[in-house]
User: Fold Thymidine kinase from Nocardioides aromaticivorans.
Amino acid sequence: MAELIFRTGTMDAGKSTLALQTNHNHAARGRVGRLFTSHDRAGAAVVSSRLGLTALAQEVEPDFDFWRYTVDALTQGARIDYFICDEAQFYTAEQVDQLAKVVDELQIDVFCFGILTDFRTRLFPGSARLVELADRTEVLQVEALCWCGKRATHNARTEDGVMVTEGEVIVVGDVDTDPEAAVHAADDVDVAYEVLCRQHHRRGMTAARARAVSLSPEPLPFP
Ligand SMILES: [Zn+2]
Assistant:
């Protein structure tokens, strides 16, 4: 029986690395798969991991139809045993429904990898639909850490170094604090991401701010 599996974790929990490893493991057994991604940090149509591995992939645009794509490929004689779907949080709910149909009707395994919640702590629509539909949802064992050492469960977005909790849901940046890695948005704001524990996400306490506060003679500005 084919399955729809959702593997989730925070931004630097190693999801893309696991996506590529999963692809490798199945390909090594002679199975034939296809890779998909959306807004990968390396650019369109590539699955890239922070450890330096990359693989070509099909970019999932908002109007991409997984069901149509799969039926067309099979009709043309292609063999498909599994899909690797990276950055699945960016897929639409409809696309996740299509993936469930591909699993059930065409017996193709679908392995999805993605972040659960956005920088506002809200579920991404694609992730919400995956939690609703997946045969299994697994939280990745490689856990990212907040600067305080606690388990990082939330994704923070910073703009020019300041944490924000409002804005467009999809702005691609990196968790690397190196300004070179930050994405220059249209209005020339440096957007970056950082993983935090819930307490420090609630307080807007990024690593940089914690450092600044610890050097400041003022009392801690906690409410
Ligand atoms: Zn913390």
